[in-house]
């Protein structure tokens, strides 16, 4: 047998990447990671990537700072108004001067302070829910990017093997043309096939770099050198029960956040309502009359009269914003249900496609290529048959990788929506 076909048919990594793609999708050669990124970091598991993102992602860090800032808002909401000290001087002549010292304190009426504290607490709850939602979303984004790195490097391995095979086929065809066994047209076809394979390699390298940049950004790094994605890319994500998806979608992080926003707007409306009741200011002081040579106690009470401004406009605005928040809650519930149903169907279809390709289509394409290669070696088939079989196998393997990527993307989107990992659901199965 020609060494070219021995290279393809002899068991090993090169053969597995081309003729047995499905079983070896769990493997990614470190040399490919080095080709994409010269300074490769140690192998990066999905758990490692999610841990790094949790510690270093700037967007998540910003959400933590926002939650910490609400502590200050809550503290300020409960603060009492400061007292006011005033001094009043009548007449500039010392003998007839009257000096008054007064200490005033505003007493908030109508439950203003309690309403402010309640609104601040709900603002803190909203920031906490937003942080939880961002953590869930980041876990899902990292999982999607990590699998994309894994699959892009596997596609690069596949493209490199296909390009190597195309070059060998081109060399063999050239020798046969020189020997007069094949038409020069076959040599032209083989060169075109080799050029197309090299273009596939360039595209695969570009995709691998782009996926590395995406993952590095999520990890809070400026360098795309994220190392070798270490894991099993051929393992499909679990498919949960549709009932669990519907149940969790009704209490998705986005829905919870919208519900808190309704309560917060109600609390803000309560603040504006409490402002309709004016605050009472009491004062106590001392008045010194130099001409009469005596001190007098000064007691005062002041209360604004709400004749013209009763805070009607601000209250109306707050009430309408509460109505808007209620509508947004309904919209969030409908959107969560719709997105969950769509994500579930996408995941189910991608899993079914990947399973069908792995169990039926890939083995058939591998057998067809092996038969065509052996027939070409024996002179029974022409180069066109081998080229078609090779192209079909490569396209099938690429389609399988894309189906795997689509399944992991759908699972990541569903996890981000539901705020939990699919594997943790009791009804989830492979």
UniProtKB/TrEMBL annotation:
Q: Organism, per UniProt?
A: Herbaspirillum chlorophenolicum
Which residues are the signal sequence here? 1-26
Q: Which residues does UniProt call coiled coil?
A: 315-360
The UniProt family comment states: Belongs to the outer membrane factor (OMF) (TC 1.B.17) family.
Q: Which UniProt keywords apply?
A: Coiled coil, Signal
Q: Note one Pfam family from the annotation.
A: OEP
Q: Which domain of life is it from?
A: Bacteria
Protein name listed in UniProt: TolC family protein
